[in-house]
Design brief:
112 residues, two-stranded antiparallel ribbon, 7 strands, 8% helix
Length: 112
């Protein structure tokens, strides 16, 4: 058995939580092309596994330290826009930001 391995699932605990996702979209027209503005919020509570088993030696203590409850909740904010051009090309761009990560997304759909 490898060191610091959990052999009993009852030695780990993960809390049940609620995740909240909220978003709004506003669509307007520029000529024949629709243009959508979007923004949102996402609350991601901590999902870390915590070691709650017995500590019998230094390896168990090291495991508990490695799986310590970080108790870090994350607030994620997002914004984006999208449009359809000439009824054949759809473009959507979005970005999300939190203290841990910033990411962007580009989606292009060509209909033929």
């Amino acid at each position: 058995m490898e060191p610091n391995a959990v052999t009993d699932p009852d030695d780990l605990e993960i809390d049940d939580t609620f995740e909240i996702h909220v978003g709004v979209e506003y669509v307007m027209s520029f000529g024949d092309a629709p243009f959508a503005l979007r923004c949102g919020y996402f609350y991601r509570p901590d999902h870390s596994a915590r070691y709650v088993g017995p500590i019998t030696d230094s390896e168990d203590q090291a495991l508990k330290d490695r799986l310590a409850n970080k108790d870090y909740d994350e607030h994620i904010y997002s914004a984006g826009f999208g449009t359809v051009l000439f009824d054949i090309l759809q473009v959507d761009v979005a970005a999300s930001y939190s203290e841990l990560i910033t990411e962007g997304t580009l989606s292009v759909v060509y209909r033929f």
